[in-house]
Amino acid sequence: MKEVAWNVFSGGSVTIDLERCVSCATKACVSACNVPNLGSALALGPDGLPALAIAPERAAQGGCIECLACDLACQSDGLGALTFSLPTPEVDAYLDALRVAGDAPGRGW
Amino acid sequence: MPKLLEYRGKALLRKAGIATPDGRVVSTAGEARSVAEALGFPVALKAQILAGKRGLGGGIAFANDGVEVEAAAQRLLGTSLYGWPVTELLIETKCPILSELYVAVISDTAARAPLMIVSTSGGVEIEQAAQAGTGTTVSAAVDMRRGAPAYWCLDVVRTLPLPEATLVALAGVLARLYEVYRHNDCTIAEINPLAVTERGLIALDARIAIDDDAVFRHPELELERSQEVGDRNATALELAAAKIDEHDHRGSTHFVQIDPDGSLAKAQGKISIGFDGIGTGVSMAVMDELVPLGFLPMNFCDTSGNPTGSKLYRITKAILAQPLIEGYVFASCLSSQQLDVTARGIIKAFKEIFAPHGGAPTIPCVFSFRGAWDDVALDLFHQHGIDAHPWVRILGRDSTERELAQTFKDLHERWRAARGMAIA
Q: Which fold would CATH assign to domain B22-93?
């Protein structure tokens, strides 16, 4: 799979499936990535596909401010090619313990 | 404010050169007996829990032989004291005491400095001694640039009615106690009582608490970081939520469970709800409006300081992980935070949590976005279809705290009615 990926400061990662982006007319993730006074971490590459505009190391140090704008923009206006993965192992473990005890919240977790 | 058990606090005191009784921690009655026999009788058995007044609560016993030690250990281990399970005992040599002193270094917000307090009324709560007017108490703020050398400490205590040799020894203990306080980033380092014995001054107890924000600097203490939870253990969910903030300085997610098991709400005939606020003032105001309407937030949460969307996502998952809540209220009233970023984190969490229901919340949820970028936040909720769900209401900058609470009450009543449940 052709993709662009980077890690984020809080522990997590962003992956964009560029094969899907080929048929995306909006590239909404790129236009959504616009931090006031700081610029953008995403830009369109020479091939017209989303690309990191900053070094991956810098993105992982906080250059990607984890505003989630790209994530939601891709969901609502793009083709769902972007995965913003933010692990919550401690909360997941708490929920697992509730499930074992039969006390899990019935909200569709 | 993580606290150390007595034996761990005493280890810090010993490391600084303050004498403590010989002792060891045990977890079985048999172990208690063999340790006591090695130390020599009489011994003290002390329940290791993070609560004070252990003596009054029956958490401290004395024994003169092996049989007594085993009996006392069996009685103490496995019991519960002030809600804390007793799983460990500190077995110590019992010291012959001539008199008892109180010494402490505490972080004094009024003085904006460490405050050294010394009283000749040791062994009791210092506040009680002050109220009763017993003993003599002296105190002095420490200039952190100069520290608290022994000669300065001697000047602090010189007016106490104690023999000269005791005063000199006391100054030495205070100088070392201040080192414990500074070196470990304590909010309190207290010895009560500090026993005056024929062998010198001996710390019979230790109460050490570490500043929450400095826990990361002390991996050697092996403390689990949680927010301020008072005199109880942090809950599993509080510890999980504290991890969100642990290594990420961008904004806060201050999460504390007010009523972790819902027992307070049940006792008061109220309904538990999840809560998130941006700014403590607005949070208090909204909670003040919710409680008279029959709701009790199961948690307090402050997500201010312009946190990232990812923080909001994670903490929203934690808030909604509380199984007993019958609703969720979000309130903001702040101009220094990008509410669109806040909204994105919440939206991402809602879409994931309620995914099996097409993203539609299954409990009543009311949001109040008031502040910078609040219009964008409202647009985002609309764009992602969250505001179209039947159990969601979203209020804008023209709404008040009372309207927020009343909106939630109305929605909650409809939600209950739709389920054939009694209206609270």
A: Dna Ligase; domain 1 (3.30.1490)
In this complex, is the C-beta atom of B376 within 8 Å of any C-beta atom belonging to chain A? no
Nearest to B335 by CA among B281, B404, B403, B274: B281
Rounded to the nearest angstrom, the minimum Cα separation between B363 and chain A is 8
Q: Is A24 domain-assigned?
A: yes
| pLDDT (tens digit per residue) in B109-142 | 888 999 999 999 987 777 777 777 788 999 999 9
Topology at the third CATH level for domain B236-418: Rossmann fold (3.40.50)
Q: Do A10 and B355 touch (CB under 8 A)?
A: no
Cross-strand bridge partners of residue B393: B366
Asked if B225 is an interface residue toward chain A (Cβ–Cβ < 8 A), one would say no
Could you tell me if B383 and B348 are in contact, meaning their C-beta atoms sit under 8 angstroms apart? Answer: no
Find, among B342, B334, B329, the residue nearest to B391 by Cα.
B329
Please judge whether A91 and B318 are an interchain contact, meaning their C-beta atoms are less than 8 angstroms apart.
Answer: yes
Which of A66, A72, A107 is opposite residue B384, by nearest beta carbon?
A72
What residue in B sits closest to A90 (Cα-Cα)?
A: B240
State whether A97 and B236 contact (CB < 8 Å): yes
Q: Which residue intervals of chain B bear CATH 3.40.50.261?
A: 236-418
State how many domains chain A has. 1
d(CA B175, CA B221): 22
- What pLDDT does A105 receive? 75
Query: Which position has the higher pLDDT, B348 or B356?
Result: B348
Residue A38 lies in a domain: yes
The strand pairing partners of B301, in sequence order, are B255
ipTM of the complex: 0.95
B261, B310, B317, B373: best mutation site toward chain A, by most A Cβ within 10 Å? B310
Under CATH, to which class is B99-215 assigned? alpha beta
Binning pLDDT at 50, 70 and 90, where does residue B241 land? very high
Q: How far is B385 from chain A (nearest CA, A)?
A: 10
pLDDT band at A109 (very low <50, low <70, confident <90, very high): very low
Joined tokens for residue B288? 């003040």
φ/ψ of B166, rounded to 5, equals -65, -40
Q: Does A108 map to a domain?
A: no
Task: Output helix, strand, coil percentages for chain B, rounded to the nearest 5.
Answer: 40, 25, 35
A60 touches chain B (CB under 8 A): no
pLDDT, mean of residues A24-43: 88
